[in-house]
Design brief:
Blueprint lengths: L1 H49 L1 E4 L19 E3 L6 E5 L5 E4 L12 E3 L4 E3 L14 E3 L21 E3 L21 E3 L6 E2 L13 E3 L4 E4 L13 E3 L4 E5 L12 E3 L4 E5 L4 H4 L5 E3 L4 E3 L14 E3 L6 E2 L12 E3 L4 E2 L9 H4 L8 E3 L6 E3 L13 E3 L4 E3 L14 E3 L6 E2 L13 E3 L4 E2 L15 E3 L6 E2 L13 E3 L4 E2 L15 E3 L6 E2 L13 E3 L4 E5 L12 E3 L4 E4 L12 E3 L4 E4 L13 E3 L4 E6 L11 E2 L5 E4 L19 H25 L12 H4 L2 H7 L8 E4 L3 E8 L4 E8 L6 H12 L10 E8 L5 E8 L6 H5 L16 H21 L4 E2 L8 E3 L5 E3 L6 E2 L7 H8 L11 H4 L6 H17 L14 H8 L4 H4 L2 H4 L9 H15 L10 H16 L8
Parallel strand pairs: 3-5, 4-6, 5-7, 7-8, 8-9, 9-11, 10-12, 11-13, 12-14, 13-15, 14-16, 15-17, 16-18, 17-19, 19-21, 20-22, 21-23, 23-25, 24-26, 25-27, 27-29, 28-30, 29-31, 31-33, 32-34, 33-35, 35-37, 36-38, 37-39, 38-40, 39-41, 40-42, 41-43, 42-44, 43-45, 44-46
Antiparallel strand pairs: 1-4, 2-3, 47-48, 48-49, 49-51, 50-51, 52-55, 53-54
Helix pairs in contact: 9-12, 9-17, 12-16, 16-17
């Protein structure tokens, strides 16, 4: 009994003691709060205020002794102890640095300094805020690193530090914040790898590292974040395979890992492992393999971005994903260039919330489904560009009334534009470039008053430019070049003040440039080249003060260049190939940004300046203006003199030429006698005394049609017996009315006069004379090649039956021919006294003799590369640019690149691919980004027989012959020759050796290849 009473007394005593201690602690806390309210919090905030250098709206004016602390702007105190528990200064336009004194606000729970201009660093003293739960410092200009002391703030649940300039790495100490629910560090400069301690943040639901410089692999410990809902890792340098840890995060709803360096394949069961996904964005990586079909089973999926990877295969049906809003699959290798590729589009009509559909830049082929007109009325962007899509644009495309971007460019679409396009009133971008669309540019496009970009170039549109385009008052880009448009330029086009880029090049437009062009104050580029425009250049052109590029070449403009001296920002000006006259304005010399000024082939006269930009002959081109004088010596112009000599008469000119010719021949004969050990001069050098216009006219029966065996860029080729040569020859008569014919003649003479190779067509002689009407006459006489051109052997179906070869070329014959061509290119590029670039290699310029030995011909575009900058003639040739033939000319030639042996390497590669696939590079099969190169590359090695010329397979190849291996090796040589980058191309010398090796390996033959 006594013990029981004693026990009860002890319990009562202990209870009283606990109550006393609790009351004492509470009293001490109240005392502490009261004592430090003014002494600590007030002082800390005043110190913080003292570091504020910018308070535009004087929000902190209340922070003084006239107001109690708890009534200061942005300050909230606790109800009981009156200590500062919240400091909320969001968006007050404050500037300065964050004072370390903030660390003395020991009762602080909530701190928001976001959307200001605080700089400096985050003080380490923040680690003293052990009660802090919410930290918002986002949208400032804070630098330095994230203080590791934040790991002491164990109560933190929400940390927002995004949109600053924070650097260094992610502190591993933050792994102790086990109560952290949301962490955003996006848009900073964080570097290094993510620490394994990140996996300790098991309460995390949201985390964002987007747009930093983090690298390395994602740590496997991330798999511990079992509650994570949002994970954003995009815009960094993370690498490795797609992180296996991600597959464990079944609660994920929003996963973004775009624009990193992740590789590998996605697991097929991805959709089963992450069944709650609303948004998946992993574009801009190096992922391969196919799209997991299980993704189409996630019925809640709203956004899917797999764009800009290396994914292949087909696209699953997403018809069971009704809430799908975004489907971004562009810029991959999806599809197979087969006609069933686009079947998935039909299922997308069930996705009634679809806003963005982008499958451009892939390998899809087939007819454009009519069903795209039945896609969601909410669709904002439809991107199918750069595929291999046929058919017509559906008539009901106008049903997509919310469309803002329609991109169908670089396909094979045909037919006219549907008038329902005029119903797309929200459209801001319409890109239909590089198709085969025809008909007129419909006037209803003028209804699209929100249009900012209109790209219709490189089609077959005809008719006139509709004036209704003037209604598109927000238009920035108008590109309608490379069509068949005619008529004049509507003046209303020149009244669209927003225009930045205007291109109508390569049409048949006529008339003059409207004077209203001067109203285009924002115009940066004007390209009207290669039309039939005429008249004088408008004086108002000088008012386009934003102009940087002016391309007006290839028209019929006349008169003087107007005053455009105010266009000081201009970079490129091309007025060549017109009828402009007068003097060259000196103000061009002072255009500091000028990179290119081409005034060639006009009628300019007088003095060429030699100061400023005129000191550089690669910047200023003036050839083809016979009355110019002066300039720097590199231009090779005659000196300016005060009194010009009298014009010589036609008879005087002829007499002078005869005398010079006589002296030249006499000198050559005399030189031959004194150098008997030297090789005989080429027949070209004595050609003028050997053959005349009359001889050729008689031999060809008056250049009759029955003698014609071919035609080229600059002339016609006749077959005839020439008594002087006592053999059948090929006579190439140049069309002297064709611009560039004389240059072609001189180039061919210059190239062939001193070179000899068994695989070069032999130039027997030449004729420089006048015809019976007194016109200049030029002809080249070649050895006749009885088997004609390689082109007719490769494409006999295109040749008249009477001239068609009786059989096809065998595999060995093709290999022999390609070795011959490689051999002669090796000779021209390396073994000549001066390297020669052919510049126009193609099957029609490869001729075959009786035994099908190849002979390369047509050097009308050839260049002696080392004479390039030494002789005026070749300067002028190069200045005109290398054209070559579309499909065979190297890409750099199309951008004004200089002639080089690398251009021949490209042409040789294309020729090789054509020889063994039977496909021309200009075939209708190819278009946009799908080229003969890509067609071949995609097929090697598994599908090489699918792309090989069927006539090879039918030409008696042995059953046991390893044709797949042989063709793969040959085509691989071609692919390496026509790489995009010139310096990466296989040299023809190496190509010749490899092809000879292939021939010896598979045919055990050594066909002679000598120079």
């Amino acid at each position: 009994m006594k013990s029981t009473q004693s026990f009860q007394f002890s319990q009562t005593k202990m209870r009283s003691m606990r109550q006393f201690l609790l009351l004492a602690c509470y009293a001490l806390m109240l005392l502490e709060a009261r004592v430090f309210t003014d002494e600590t919090d007030r002082q800390a905030l005043l110190e913080f205020k003292s570091q504020i250098s910018e308070d535009k709206r004087v929000f902190l004016s209340s922070w003084n002794h006239s107001f109690t602390l708890c009534k200061w702007t942005g300050v909230t105190c606790g109800r009981k102890h009156k200590r500062v528990i919240s400091l909320d200064l969001v968006g007050l336009q404050l500037g300065g640095i964050i004072s370390p004194s903030i660390g003395n606000l020991s009762f602080l729970i909530y701190l928001d300094l976001s959307n200001n201009s605080f700089g400096g660093t985050i003080p380490q003293e923040f680690g003293n805020l052990f009660r802090l739960e919410y930290l918002y410092l986002n949208s400032n200009i804070l630098g330095g690193g994230i203080p590791s002391s934040l790991g002491n703030c164990s109560r933190l649940s929400d940390v927002q530090l995004f949109s600053n300039q924070l650097g260094q790495g992610f502190p591993s100490e933050l792994g102790s914040l086990t109560k952290l629910v949301s962490l955003s560090l996006r848009q900073n400069n964080l570097k290094g790898k993510l620490p394994a301690s990140l996996g300790n943040l098991t309460s995390l639901k949201e985390i964002s590292f987007t747009s930093n410089k983090l690298e390395g692999e994602i740590p496997s410990e991330v798999a511990k974040l079992s509650q994570i809902v949002i994970l954003h890792l995009g815009g960094n340098n993370f690498s490795g395979v797609f992180p296996p840890a991600i597959y464990n995060l079944s609660s994920l709803q929003n996963l973004s890992m775009s624009y990193n360096q992740f590789s590998g394949r996605l697991r097929p069961d991805l959709g089963h492992l992450l069944p709650n996904l609303l948004s998946l964005n992993i574009g801009g990586n190096y992922l391969t393999g196919s799209i997991p079909v299980t993704l189409s089973n996630i019925s809640t999926l709203e956004r899917l971005g797999l764009n800009e990877n290396n994914m292949t295969g087909s696209i699953p049906s997403f018809g069971n994903v009704p809430n799908l809003q975004w489907l971004l699959l562009n810029t991959n290798s999806l599809g197979s260039y087969s006609f069933g590729d686009l079947g998935f589009l039909n299922s997308l009509t069930n996705c009634t919330q679809l806003e963005l559909l982008s499958i451009g830049r892939n390998m899809f082929a087939g007819d454009l489904p009519i069903s795209i007109a039945n896609l969601s009325a909410k669709l904002i962007t439809l991107d199918l560009q750069e595929n291999f899509i046929f058919g017509r644009i559906p008539h009901d495309i106008g049903n997509l009334i919310s469309l803002q971007k329609l991109l169908l460019g670089d396909n094979m679409l045909t037919g006219p534009l549907p008038t329902s396009l005029g119903n797309l009133f929200e459209l801001g971008l319409l890109d239909l470039n590089s198709n085969k669309l025809s008909g007129e540019i419909i006037s209803v496009i003028g209804n699209l008053t929100q249009l900012q970009e209109l790209h219709l170039y490189n089609n077959s549109f005809e008719g006139t430019i509709p004036p209704s385009l003037g209604n598109c008052s927000y238009l920035l880009y108008l590109q309608i070049g490379h069509n068949n448009l005619n008529g004049t330029i509507p003046p209303v086009i020149m009244q669209i003040p927003s225009l930045v880029h205007l291109s109508m090049k390569s049409n048949s437009l006529s008339g003059s440039i409207p004077e209203d062009v001067g109203r285009l104050q924002n115009l940066v580029e004007l390209s009207l080249k290669n039309n039939n425009l005429s008249g004088q250049l408008p004086q108002t052109l000088g008012k386009c003060l934003s102009m940087e590029i002016i391309y007006l070449q290839g028209n019929y403009f006349h008169g003087a260049i107007p005053d455009i001296s105010g266009l000081m920002g201009v970079r490129r000006v091309d007025f060549s190939n017109n009828n402009l006259s007068g003097t060259i304005p000196g103000y061009f010399a002072n255009f500091s940004s000028l990179e290119y000024l081409n005034l060639s082939i006009n009628k300019f006269e007088g003095y060429v300046p030699s100061d400023g930009k005129f000191q550089n002959s690669t910047v200023v081109l003036v050839y083809g203006n016979k009355n110019l004088c002066g300039g720097i010596k590199e231009l090779k112009l005659k000196p300016c003199i005060a009194v010009a000599p009298p014009m010589e008469t036609k008879h005087q000119s002829l007499l002078r030429k005869v005398v010079i010719g006589f002296l030249y021949v006499w000198f050559r004969r005399r030189k031959k006698k004194h150098h008997t050990n030297n090789p005989a001069p080429s027949t070209l050098e004595i050609s003028h005394e050997k053959i005349s216009y009359r001889d050729l006219r008689n031999a060809t029966d008056g250049f009759s049609l029955s003698s014609i065996i071919g035609s080229g860029s600059f002339g016609t080729v006749y077959k005839t017996f020439l008594p002087i040569e006592n053999k059948i020859v090929a006579v190439k008569v140049l069309n002297m009315q064709r611009r560039g014919a004389m240059k072609s003649f001189m180039a061919e003479c210059e190239s062939l006069k001193d070179i000899r190779h068994r695989n070069l067509v032999k130039l027997l002689t030449a004729c420089t004379s006048i015809d019976f009407q007194g016109n200049e006459f030029r002809a080249l006489i070649y050895e006749f090649m009885p088997n004609g051109s390689l082109d007719k052997w490769l494409h006999p179906e295109e040749v008249e039956e009477i001239h068609r070869p009786s059989r096809t070329l065998t595999l060995l014959e093709r290999l022999n021919i390609v070795v011959d061509v490689a051999s002669v290119l090796d000779y021209l590029h390396i073994h000549c006294h001066e390297p020669i670039a052919h510049c126009d290699l193609k099957p029609s310029n490869v001729l075959l003799n009786n035994d099908l030995t190849a002979h390369v011909s047509d050097f009308g575009l050839a260049r002696l590369l080392l004479k390039f900058n030494q002789e005026s003639f070749f300067n002028q040739l190069s200045s005109a640019g290398v054209r070559g033939t579309i499909g065979y000319a190297a890409p750099e030639y199309g951008m004004g690149g200089q002639p080089s042996i690398h251009g021949d390497e490209y042409s040789f590669g294309i020729l090789l691919l054509e020889m063994f696939t039977g496909k021309r590079p200009t075939s209708e099969l190819f278009g946009g980004n799908f080229t003969l190169y890509k067609y071949t590359k995609l097929a090697l090695p598994e599908k090489v027989l699918d792309i090989a010329d069927k006539s090879i397979l039918q030409s008696g190849v042995r059953v046991d012959f390893p044709i797949v291996e042989c063709l793969t090796l040959i085509l691989d040589v071609g692919l390496r020759c026509c790489e995009e980058t010139p310096m990466n191309r296989l040299a023809t010398s190496v190509a010749a050796k490899e092809l000879i090796s292939i021939r010896e390996r598979f045919f055990q033959t050594r066909r002679t290849t000598r120079r």
